[in-house]
Write a structure and sequence with these properties.
Layout: H1 12-21, H2 26-33, E1 37-46, E2 52-63, E3 69-75, H3 81-97, E4 104-109, H4 118-132, E5 141-145, H5 151-165, H6 188-203, E6 212-216, H7 220-231, E7 235-241, E8 244-247, H8 254-264, E9 274-276, H9 278-282, E10 286-291, H10 300-303, E11 308-313, H11 321-330, E12 333-335, H12 337-340, H13 343-357, H14 363-388, H15 392-412
Parallel strand pairs: 3-4, 3-5, 6-7, 6-10, 10-11, 11-12
Antiparallel strand pairs: 1-2, 2-4, 7-8, 8-9
Helix pairs in contact: 1-15, 3-15, 4-5, 6-7, 6-13, 6-14, 13-14, 14-15
Length: about 425
């Protein structure tokens, strides 16, 4: 294969690896890595104190050869185009891996929602829709919750979009069930992590019962992963959030911890547990380390010190490329993000279908569908990893990259 030139987000190197393994040339890689559209809008917001602050909103659309663009909308001060470009590509690979008729996108606003009042957050969200409405829609681009956003934010987006175009529940997913949301959507990513871990245990002729897990991140994904894993017999010995971490090697009471977090806003202060800083938490000895916070949590140095047997990527790109190479050399298995954290987009797809058909599904039907989709994807990834003697990440990217490339080639030429 001819060498692929040019600077890229380091995470794009996973895609490059897959392209090299599949013997794609420069033009094929360029087609895969390229973007369809980038939107950047300025939004001056009058704060409650009368001051004016300008925020910037973004939407990056990667490819829609397989279906409408699909991806999260995050509210975080670190939101920028460079990161969103890779995340949009990652969404294309996720949907391709689990064979959803959707493309990939990502967007957000460079704000800290914790520092905004409810009125400010609502106004900023509606302003964003007013600026962006021509670039989203149920057959064009369907946003969903991500870091810093939730069902309430999606409800505001749906309502503002419907003011312009009439009632359109399919414009976003992750909404409250009362306005067209899918039952089980909030827990889908966390539940998906449990399903993938269970399938990998079966693949190794092992079981989850009695295993230990450490979870970095106790937001929506982390807490639901903790609950699902507890139901599967896993002992959660430590968790962390943006305020810090806690540990109890005898096992944390997850149900009580969730209530504590809801009441106090942090896992800190939970009884029957000691505090631990985030770096020490990452280095704990355990069977599974679930990374459910932001990207870039494990770099090359940290990867060399991890004591977990298996790393599970519950967030987008939590293990940096250099860190992943170290983990491969050390024989530490990584369940990659495009497989392990795909539960959310699978159930988002189910919600979108319900909205188009105006026919709600039961939570049992949704859970069954999620299990079938993820189990099939796991089987494919495990088979390729075994047959081609490569890591699970390499296997997942090869499968997704080939599907995406084939669709792009058919639609483009």
């Amino acid at each position: 294969m001819a060498s692929i030139q040019g600077d890229m987000h380091e995470s794009m190197r996973f895609l490059k690896e897959a392209a090299v393994a599949l013997e794609y040339d420069d033009r094929e890689f360029s087609l895969l890595a390229g973007l369809s559209r980038e939107v950047r809008v300025a939004m001056p917001l009058q704060r409650d104190d009368g001051s004016i602050q300008t925020y910037y909103g973004y939407r990056v659309q990667h490819h829609n050869a397989l279906g409408p663009y699909k991806g999260g909308l995050r509210y975080h001060p670190s939101v920028n185009l460079n990161e969103l470009r890779w995340l949009a590509c990652l969404m294309s690979l996720k949907t391709a891996l689990v064979e959803l008729p959707l493309g990939g996108a990502k967007g957000g606003i460079d704000c800290d929602p914790k520092l905004l009042s409810r009125r400010e957050l609502r106004s900023l969200t509606r302003y964003f829709v007013q600026k962006l409405h021509r670039n989203i829609g149920p057959n064009l681009d369907i946003p969903a919750p991500d870091v810093g956003t939730d069902a309430q934010v999606m409800a505001w987006i749906q309502d503002e979009y419907s003011v312009i175009y009439g009632y359109t529940p399919g414009v976003v997913t992750g909404k409250p069930t009362l306005v067209g949301g899918a039952r089980g959507r909030e827990s889908a990513t966390g539940r998906g992590i449990g399903i993938v871990m269970q399938e990998y245990a079966h693949h190794r002729a092992d079981e989850l019962l009695g295993k230990t897990a450490v979870i970095q991140g106790f937001g929506n994904v982390g807490r639901h992963a903790a609950s699902d894993l507890t139901d599967r017999g896993v002992k959660i010995i430590a968790v962390s959030d943006s305020s810090g971490g806690i540990i109890n090697k005898a096992g944390l009471d997850v149900k009580r911890l969730v209530k504590h977090k809801d009441k106090m806003g942090s896992v800190l202060g939970f009884d029957s547990a000691e505090e631990i800083d985030n770096q020490a938490l990452l280095m704990l000895k355990c069977n599974y380390l679930v990374l459910a916070a932001l990207g870039g949590a494990v770099d090359e140095t940290q990867a060399s010190r991890l004591k977990a047997e298996i790393v599970v990527e519950g967030a987008n790109n939590p293990v940096a490329y250099a860190g992943d190479l170290v983990l491969r050399d050390r024989g530490i298995v990584v369940l990659p993000d495009i497989l392990a954290s795909t539960g959310g987009v699978v159930v988002s797809y189910f919600e979108w279908v319900q909205n188009i058909q105006h026919m709600p599904w039961s939570e049992d039907d949704i859970t069954a569908g999620l299990t079938v989709r993820l189990t099939k994807a796991c089987d494919g990834v495990f088979a390729v990893a075994t047959g081609q003697n490569c890591s699970l990440r390499e296997a997942a990217h090869r499968i997704a990259t080939k599907r995406l490339k084939d669709a792009l080639w058919i639609t483009s030429f």
